Amino acid sequence: LVNSKRISEQYQKPTEFMDKTISYGTAGFRTKADELDWVMYRMGLLACLRSISQKCQYIGCMITASHNPEEDNGCKLVDPMGDMLHESWESYATRLVNSNNLQDTLKSLCENELKEFIEEFENDQKANRLGRVQRPNIVAAYDTRPSSEALFKAFKTGLEALDGVLVNYGLMTTPQLHYMVRCLNTNSSYGEPNEDGYFDKLTCAFFKIWSMIEFNNNGKYESDLYVDGSNGIGADKIKKLSRLISSVSFNDKPSNGSSQPVLNIHVFNDGKQPSDKLNHLCGADFVKVQQKPPNNLPESSDGKLRKYCSFDGDADRIVYYYLDKSEKNQFYLLDGDKISTLVATHFRELLEGAQLNDKINLCIVQTAYANGSSTNFIENIMKIKASCVPTGVKHLHHEAQKFDIGVYFEANGHGTILLSQKAESIIEERYADLMKKSEELDESVLFNDWIKNDRVRYSLYVLKHLKDCINQTVGDAITDLLVVELIMAMKHMSIADWNQMYTDLPSRQLKVKIKDRNVIRTYDAERRVSQPAELQDKIDNLVKSSEAKMARSFVRPSGTEDVVRVYAEADTQELTDKLAKQVCQLVY
Ligand code: 16G
Ligand code: ZN
Predict the structure, then answer these.
(1) N or C: which end of the chain has fewer CB within 10 A?
(2) 31 or 415: which carries more pLDDT confidence?
(3) Closest ligand 1 atom, CA of 414?
């Protein structure tokens, strides 16, 4: 398989990288775009090996640097079910990219760690000699960065060296690509593997629920939503969705004919102005970290409250916010914690309504960054299980997979909802029973009466369609938006009502640069420090001596930047800032 003559001369590792190590971290490989083409080439080789190890199922490659500046780029591989590259392969990626002798490293991987897979593949090839020859299957997509196409070319050259077959999806959001990979490997049972299929599945499920909502004049739901596209790919895709939503005719839907409002999506920071720059002064990361609105915010002129949200550069994160005119334009942020509490609370109600709460369990997965108020609300008021794991989507995703319904969100707005096979089957079976019983009914009676006026039937109906409105492969700003809007509309809730579910404690995030950030070791999902030995006691003492009743602080080495991150929260912003600064002093 690995024929040294086929390794291209074109994408040689530059000499300045010969004694540097870069690693496949939580965000894959990510750095300045002009230092990446040789990395992409090697990732093309790795993608083929990964596909071979998975019986030639499709492996995805997303070219993006997410919320990072436009000049950066990066690459992440996607496993057959649409989740991130398996952890055991991260070290192969790091080894291949850092190798100063590519052929030797490739050969060594194939003859040792990957021996079984390669042998099996080669035997299959021999057995199939007269039939169809199996080749590694890869799909790729990229975001709107100017560097994307050249990097795509390098990746393609790499995979061709190992006879890989490539499907290029071109411009897509990261979660769209994850979705396509899952569709391709499951014979379309998850959906059709193209963009129309993605949007069809979502809009169809969305309308099934939307058309059943009784919008009354007293409801406080705001059907206008202003979306900050971070000047990236998410802007184009949400515009497409918005066009689809507004073009659906109400005759197609089981409504009683009364006029339903539409969800009006207004996109700003869409990257179409010459001065627009990806993620610059806008987007979910900017809004969350700076705790302020993005540039070009379309403010209302009539004093009416507006509901906003921001995507990040590859549209896998979303945060909501609003300005309260009655409080001198006070800015309120509804981050991943608020989204997960809204979603989990609603799922809890639906499970109770459908009388399934003793059959299907529910859990919220958070990280140490989750606001203490959210954890308190989930555990002590909602009585839902909350689980805490280390930072990084893969940790949240794996933990959420342990439950029948796992709702996971990082405070930064990345998250989704996972349903186990068991939960899906129960919901599908009960829903099919429901539909069987209703076969005789006239359609308008069915929806307007039979389902709508019965809590068990209605809850089941919503559960079935809400689940089809979720991208279960990875956090997806577009599907998260639809789910949040549906829940707010069903609850006749304004964004301010949602915000009042609980009040966030003031928090502060700071970073400290030290010589070697890896001297800091943590445990208990990064909430406590084990090394240096005295550091945790010192943090505990500061927290204890703070005047605040609710103080909390932790430190952890960043996985993406050469810094140590410090987090603090307390009763007031002043006490929070004081605590955060004191903890920084300890780290220096
Ligand atoms: C990466 C992670 C994100 C995490 C962030 C933390 C993925 C896809 N992304 O962007 O989930 O919040 O790193 O960065 O896993 P830090 O370690 O520098 O604080
Ligand atoms: Zn992102």
Answers:
(1) C
(2) 415
(3) 11
532: cis peptide before it, omega within 30°?
A: yes
User: What is 507-587's CATH topology?
Assistant: TATA-Binding Protein (3.30.310)
Homologous superfamily of the 4-171 domain (CATH) = Alpha-D-Glucose-1,6-Bisphosphate, subunit A, domain 3 (3.40.120.10)
**Residue 66 annotated in active site:** yes
pLDDT digits (tens, 9 = 90+) for 497-508: 999 999 999 999
Contacts of 336 (CB under 8 A, 6+ apart): 317, 319, 409, 410, 411, 412, 413, 414, 415
Which residue is closest in CA terms to ligand 1's atom 2? Answer: 392
Ligand closest to CA 24 = 1
Compute the distance from residue 558 Cα to the ligand 1 centre, in Å: 8
By the 8 A CB rule, do 198 and 83 touch?
Answer: no
* Predicted pLDDT at 133: 73
Select which of 66, 255, 373, 553 is catalytic: 66
* Distance from Cα 196 to the centre of ligand 1, integer Å: 30
CA distances from 48 to 136, 143, 159 (A): 5, 22, 6
Query: Which of the four CATH numbers 2.60.40, 1.20.950, 3.40.120, 3.30.450 does domain 339-475 have?
Result: 3.40.120
Paired tokens of 257: 């004919």
Write out the residues surrounding ion ligand 2, Cβ under 5 A: 66, 312, 314, 316
Ligand 1 is surrounded, with C-beta below 6 A, by: 26-27, 391-393, 410, 412, 414, 558-561, 565
Helix axes 148-161, 37-53, angle to 10 degrees: 50
Average the pLDDT over 454-478 and give the result.
95
The ligand 1 atom nearest the CA atom of 563? 18
User: CA 50, 52, 55, 59 torsion: positive or negative?
Assistant: positive
Q: Which ligand is nearest to the CA of 278?
A: 2
Q: How confident is the model at residue 248 (pLDDT cuts 50, 70, 90)?
A: confident
For 143-200, how does the pLDDT look when each residue is reduced to its tens digit (9 = 90+)? 999 999 999 999 999 999 999 999 999 999 999 999 999 999 998 889 999 999 999 9
pLDDT of residue 251: 46
Assess whether pLDDT exceeds 60 at residue 252: no
Average pLDDT, the chain: 93
Q: Would you put residue 351 in left (φ > 0), alpha (ψ -120 to 50) or beta? A: alpha
Q: Determine if residue 560 is labeled as part of a ligand binding site.
A: yes
Top CATH class, 198-336:
alpha beta
Mutate to test the pocket of ligand 1, among 391, 409, 513, 567 (most ligand atoms within 8 A of CB): 391
